[in-house]
UniProtKB/TrEMBL annotation, chains A, B:
The chain crosses the membrane at residues 156-176, 183-205, 211-232. PANTHER family: FE(2+)/MN(2+) TRANSPORTER PCL1. Its main location: membrane. InterPro entries: Ccc1_fam (IPR008217). Belongs to the CCC1 family. It comes from the Eukaryota. It is found in: Vacuole membrane. It comes from Riccia sorocarpa. GO terms for cellular component: vacuolar membrane. GO terms for biological process: iron ion transport. It catalyses: Fe(2+)(in) = Fe(2+)(out). Keywords: Ion transport, Iron, Iron transport, Membrane, Transmembrane, Transmembrane helix, Transport, Vacuole. This is Iron transporter. It is a multi-pass membrane protein.
Length: 237, 237
């Protein structure tokens, strides 16, 4: 490659922005396609009418999307809080115990097999630049990346939206077919196709082999639903 | 503090091991306490008998724990795959285009305001140590940490177990009380207490203020259940 750094920047940028969006869609849609589908299958297994299946399914989609969305919001929020509290702490330490912090920089570089005469110029250079020094400690000592401010809300809406989109698909047959056990067959077929497509696309984005990803995703849905179906039937089948 | 580095090691270790376990428990139990609770509330709102609520609830717990557990397994697995494929790529680049990789190291250090004479010794030192050089690129260019091998399975079991533990709590009243609408009142009380305790403990581990965390967590459960309750009632209440 002729422009390795720009190529890498693109990669890194992807890794931290599109990557997060894709991850949120995957989190929301994986569960959205799987849980309401499995729940509906389970209730059909307990000989519940379609009306109950749809009620339970939509209640689950509402609860699941809100719970996952708000959960994602708070997770991103606390990542961000964690970063800023750690950053304040580094800033304080660099002011109050610069020598110990400098020796930490030395240790970090020594861990890469560098000799004192090789890393000392870096340590001294950072001591002259407190802001850069804090950035260095955050990224290289604590391995923390500066969080994107809009992240938490975007993450919440992405996860919730993906959950709802995924959840409606397996429930649709029950909305139009009064016999739950009949609707189940259509729901299984439609949802398995959706899981395969979703898994395939997910694979393209996440770097997993698309076909492997398609089958993994479909198998999760199948296993989860089989378990739900079996449990529901064993209770009042 | 007198031993800042050891203190930091402890912190970092926490951040990467106990931190992951706690995060998995939080992921599983947040949804486990919220979604089955909200689903049960929703079905009670649709005047379903306790038997249906319990069936739907347990079907949801089975589906949710399996879906989230397997989802967590695959997420950890693909993080690990991503790390090793990126590492292979860096290894290849360091062999094939060492000069461009060396200039990337220079750029990384220059971003911290270092002068060529300050970072050049480091660049040259890394060129003499390919393994350390790869580690340096993985951590400082791509910001990727070496994944723990047992992580994926441990993550799956932790999430699923936490989901089941959380999910049983709101369903228990429906198992012992035949009138769903009566059981609902007990379920609401028991689950709100559980959410507050869980949120408080979560806050202690994640660094969020415990009381704030307790109320945030309880509010997620309340909002999700209110939505599920409203939707279920609006369909066939």
């Amino acid at each position: 490659m002729t422009h390795p750094h720009s190529a890498h920047s693109v990669h890194v940028e992807k890794h931290f922005t599109a990557g997060d969006f894709v991850r949120d869609v995957v989190i929301g849609m994986s569960d959205g396609l799987t849980v309401p589908f499995a729940l509906a299958a389970g209730l059909s297994g307990a000989a519940a009418p379609s009306s109950i299946v749809v009620t339970a399914g939509l209640a689950e989609v509402a609860a699941g999307s809100i719970a996952m969305g708000l959960g994602g919001y708070l997770a991103a929020k606390s990542d961000s809080d964690h970063y800023w509290s750690e950053r304040k702490r580094e800033e304080k330490e660099i002011e109050e115990v610069p020598d110990t912090e400098a020796s930490e920089v030395a240790e970090i570089l020594a861990d890469f097999g560098l000799e004192p005469e090789e890393y000392w110029p870096v340590v001294n250079a950072l001591r002259k630049r407190p802001e850069a020094w804090i950035d260095f400690m955050m990224r290289f000592e604590l391995g923390l990346e500066k969080p994107d401010p809009g992240r938490a809300l975007q993450s919440a809406l992405t996860i919730a939206g993906a959950y709802i989109m995924g959840g409606i698909i397996p429930l649709f047959p029950y909305m139009v077919m009064p016999q739950a056990i009949e609707a189940l067959k259509v729901s299984v077929a439609v949802t398995l196709v959706a899981l395969l497509i979703f898994g395939f696309v997910k694979g393209l984005f996440t770097g997993t082999k698309p076909l492997a990803s398609a089958f993994q995703t479909a198998i999760i849905g199948a296993v989860a639903s089989a378990a739900a179906f079996g449990i529901a039937r064993s209770i009042n089948g």
